[in-house]
From TrEMBL:
Residues annotated as domain Flagellin N-terminal: 3-140
Single GO term (MF): structural molecule activity
Keywords of the record: Cell projection, Cilium, Flagellum
Tree of life domain: Bacteria
GO process annotations (BP): bacterial-type flagellum-dependent cell motility
Source species: Chthonomonas calidirosea (strain DSM 23976 / ICMP 18418 / T49)
GO terms under cellular component: bacterial-type flagellum hook
InterPro entries: Flagell_FlgL (IPR013384), Flagellin (IPR001492), Flagellin_N (IPR001029)
Official protein name in the record: Flagellar hook-associated protein 3
A Pfam family hit: Flagellin_N
Amino acid sequence: MRISTQQIVQDTILGVEDAYSRFGVAEKQVSTGKRINQPSDDPVGTGEVLKLQQLNSQINQYNNIIDLAVNFLSTTDSALSSTNNLLQQARTIALQAANSSLDDSARANLANQIGQIITQVISLGNSSYEGRYIFAGQRTKTAPLAQTPSGFVYSGGSAATGDGNISLDVNVGESVTINVTGDQVFMPILSTLKSLQDDIANGQLSTISNVDVANIDTQLGNLLSVRAGVGAKIDMLNGEKLRNEQVSIGNTSLLSQVQDTDMAQGMVDLQTAQTAYQAALMATAHTYQYSLLDFLR
């Protein structure tokens, strides 16, 4: 069976195109450092790449949430630490006020100092993070604490109203409550301080010594317990982020194994593809050197 001139030409052209395509792929793998630059390069490998990239993207999202949660909790702890310091000051004032040698002017001055502490505690109870009140439960756009002529008012979310907890998903199937509500922490403190202020103003020395100081100690103990819980959550979240980062590093290593070019092998493949392409070009040039008479002989 004779092979036509047209068939020879077509086969030659196809050979050149195939060699050029292989050369282009090899060149791109070396220049980009990636073995897979499009799905057709390795369909199975492409699936693995997409899976690993999706896992790392999910980890990054969770780590961003963890960062938010840690910052929220750190702001909470800072406010509680300052409140603790104010309670310690109030305790010192209470011990001074229990001294029977103080005159009315001195007691009025001490009562006024407790009033200033109350104002500062309310301000701390209305602390915010990124424009959201941290002790207001889910009602983060409303200042939770206020003082009125009739007493103290809490306007935030609570367990009783079902909107007290702020919970965030920090990993697959893992949720963490990142807040404490002002009704649980600050309202008892404010009540204790107000009673102390009134007892100082009215000269109730026995009540100051036997009740008010003890109540302050109770609130200091409560604050310590709340801060311990906040600190434990911060430590847990930091550990969770560290584990996520270790998983991400492992995924990135696997991604490199699947996707990246082995540069030593890549250079060999590129040289081989280039040689094959040049050989195809030479063969084509040799084919076209023949004239029509050469094919008719």
